[in-house]
Specification:
This protein has 304 residues and is α+β, with helices and mostly antiparallel strands. It has a single domain, classed as Beta-lactamase (3-Layer(aba) Sandwich). A 5-stranded antiparallel sheet has the order 2-1-8-7-6, sandwiched between helices. The protein has a 3-stranded antiparallel sheet with strand order 3-5-4. A hairpin with a 4-residue loop joins strand 1 and strand 2. The longest helix is centred in the middle third of the chain and has 14 residues. The chain is globular. It catalyses: L-glutamine + H2O = L-glutamate + NH4(+). This is Glutaminase. Belongs to the glutaminase family.
Length: 304
């Protein structure tokens, strides 16, 4: 029997002593105001047991982690037609890189880089009657928590500074891979990235990826096959140009965000999330990466 609480306590004691906690994302002004000393971690087992340490109940901007949730929602709406518009290959480039998009004629390399997530956002803007409200309701439903909401200050901050995303959306539009207006799609995209959640809420949201597509309420939100494919995409593409390093060090499908969050899943076993706002040079939580590596090492639990 694994003593998960003791392991989380040990990891917490280890990482908070780290003198270099990384650098907070400053290109989105609202994110630069976060306390860099924050650290939280939450584990939810498929059996229902939960374990936590640190600031696991403090809300933060999940940013690119939201891309997995929009992908799941879009797959539940249009299925395999998604792959007509976005590929499933690792990019090997930073999350906001545009050169590949032009080279590959407007087909993003995968749905977890910005250009790919913008295509997914376009699909949801087409499919949903009230995109922002409907997506928020989806997240609230899969977590069983209607307190989750958008941080409107973060959304506005992204709108005012997201020039690279405007460039990506216009490039997609020029290749006829955006069906709605750039402004409508990016308004939705900036809101999805501004979702504010805690580590505890994130483990609940990602429960369906560890539970064959079924959410906490045991309702099938995506098929087993779709859950398998999303896990595969998270493993190969969830950490931009550091996905290989995360697979090598941690060995779990997962997704990071520049708000300092990381969430990962071991199918049939658990979901785990960690939050530490300081980022490494590749835009992933510095202490979060260390904490998850220690977790899979100490528990001897990974997909490998």
């Amino acid at each position: 029997m694994i003593d998960y609480q003791a392991i989380l306590n040990k990891i917490h004691a280890n990482v908070i002593q780290e003198p270099d906690k990384g650098n907070i994302a400053r290109y989105i002004p609202e994110l630069s105001r976060v306390n860099p000393e924050r650290f939280g971690m939450h584990l939810k087992l498929i059996s229902g047991e939960e374990f936590a340490v640190g600031d696991s109940e403090v809300g933060f901007s999940i940013q690119s982690i939201s891309k997995v949730l929009t992908l799941a929602m879009a797959m539940s709406k249009i299925g395999t037609h998604i792959w007509d518009r976005v590929d499933v290959e690792p990019s090997g480039n930073p999350f906001n890189h545009l050169s590949l998009l032009e080279l590959e004629e407007g087909i993003p390399r995968n749905p977890l880089i910005n250009s790919g997530a913008i295509v997914i956002a376009d699909i949801l803007v087409s499919e949903l009657e009230n995109p922002k409200a409907d997506f928020l309701k989806y997240v609230q439903d899969i977590t069983g928590d209607d307190s989750i909401s958008y941080n409107l200050k973060v959304a506005q901050s992204e709108k005012e500074t997201g020039f690279n995303n405007y460039a990506a959306a216009n490039l997609l539009k020029s290749f006829n891979n955006l069906n709605n207006s750039v402004d409508d799609v990016l308004d939705f995209y900036f809101h999805q990235c501004s979702l504010e959640m805690t580590c505890s809420q994130l483990t609940k949201a990602f429960f369906l990826f560890a539970n064959k597509g079924k959410c906490l309420a045991q309702v099938a939100r995506i098929t087993k096959s779709q859950a398998k494919r999303i896990n595969a995409i998270m493993l190969t593409c969830g950490f931009y140009d550091e996905a290989g390093e995360f697979a090598f060090e941690v060995g779990l499908p997962g997704k990071s965000g520049v708000g300092g969050g990381i969430v990962a899943a071991l199918p049939h076993e658990f979901t785990i999330s960690v939050w530490s706002p300081g980022l490494n040079e590749r835009g992933n939580s510095k202490l979060g990466m260390q904490a998850l590596e220690q977790f899979t090492t100490l528990t001897n639990q990974s997909i490998f």
